[in-house]
Write a structure and sequence with these properties.
Length: about 350
């Protein structure tokens, strides 16, 4: 790959690496016992979708530090997508989400298979299997990273950060569970965003790429100054799309956040601006399983009336500006700065 950034070409490379690796791993599961075929299929298909942003940030963490094109680095970067795949399976299970990318989520797909085979207690068994699929994907992420082909000395530089990535991802998911159903609060929501998504989406992949490359402390500081606000902006955009996006494009149910009562910044900003009667309306809706299109329309109208989406848009714009401004003093090659600016837009200026 030349210094000209080719996002589609890079995505194809990552897709190929993931497809081959997961097919091999699914085959190893089936070799244990044919009964594992449905589980193996979920492993095989787990990373079939995505923008490959996490892999791209890892790749440019490497390239911005002056390192050349490397197939081994692409394999290491692809492992970031398996971290995401593991998080998605667990997140969908925790939130009882039915759709992801317009397809049944892992636990829903497994329940359908078990029900077709007449399994009693199919729902409970499917949820247990999905949990184990998510666990296995996280293990496979580590395996792909360590078997990438990079020198052991390079991999050792990133060992501590890899552990921090896993720890903080779990911490963020736990924080969301602990704060779900509680009083909506913007600062609390942003903390959940920071640890559940922002760090493992941008900051940690960038830093891992940089550590693998031997990036200087000053450059790693730049990665942090760019990565954290951009990761927060990414998730804030995701929250907006979750409620206001076109479900045909997002592939997710628009009512999921309301049904779960998730502590999103969008909900917190709505709550902060609402009067007593409006809060009572929200309180009546949050966490209900029977919400329909009429409820969604009412909540959207209320949020727009209170200008909550506009304030979240401003949060996004502020964070993107802060992130891209950090690149001005990066001391990185011009082609890397261009790529990181383009990635900032791809991560936050999107409709799905």
């Amino acid at each position: 790959m030349s210094d000209l950034w080719d996002p589609a070409g890079f995505r194809d490379r990552v897709d190929g690496v993931l497809r081959d690796f997961l097919a091999e791993q699914a085959g190893l599961l089936v070799a244990v016992d044919e009964a594992l075929a449905p589980v193996a299929e979920q492993v095989r298909s787990s990373a079939g979708h995505g923008k490959r942003l996490r892999a791209a940030f890892c790749y440019w963490g490497w390239r911005a530090a002056g390192q050349p094109e490397s197939d081994a680095l692409v394999r290491a970067a692809a492992s970031m997508e398996l971290v995401h795949a593991a998080a998605v399976v667990h997140d969908d299970l925790i939130d009882d989400s039915a759709l992801r990318h317009g397809l049944p989520t892992a636990h829903v797909a497994l329940e359908a298979v078990l029900a077709r085979h007449g399994r009693t207690g199919a729902r409970r068994a499917a949820r247990s299997l999905a949990m184990l699929v998510g666990d296995h994907l996280m293990v496979l992420a580590g395996r792909m990273f360590t078997d990438s082909g990079l020198p052991a000395a390079y991999l050792a530089r990133a060992r501590d950060l890899w552990a921090a990535l896993a720890r903080e991802l779990v911490a963020g998911e736990c924080l969301e569970i602990l704060h779900t159903g509680g009083p909506p609060d913007t600062e609390t929501s942003l903390k959940v965003v920071r640890y559940k998504t922002a760090k493992y989406t941008v900051e940690h992949p960038l830093l891992i790429g940089g550590l693998l490359a031997g990036a200087t402390p000053a450059l790693r500081d730049t990665y942090r100054a760019y990565g954290l606000p951009l990761g927060e902006a990414f998730q804030l955009r995701d929250d907006l799309l979750g409620l206001f996006g076109d479900q045909e494009r997002t592939g997710k149910a628009a009512l999921d956040d309301l049904r779960a009562g998730r502590p999103t910044a969008l909900l917190a900003e709505t709550w902060k601006a609402a009067d007593t009667s409006q809060r009572e309306r929200l309180r009546h809706l949050l966490g209900r399983d029977d919400l329909d299109a009429t409820h969604l329309r009412d909540v959207r109208r209320l949020m727009l009336r209170l200008e909550a989406p506009q304030r979240v848009e401003q949060m996004i714009a502020t964070r993107v500006e802060r992130a891209t401004r950090a690149l001005d003093t990066a001391g990185t090659p011009p082609h890397a700065r261009r790529a990181l600016r383009e990635l900032a837009l791809r991560a936050t200026d999107r409709t799905y």
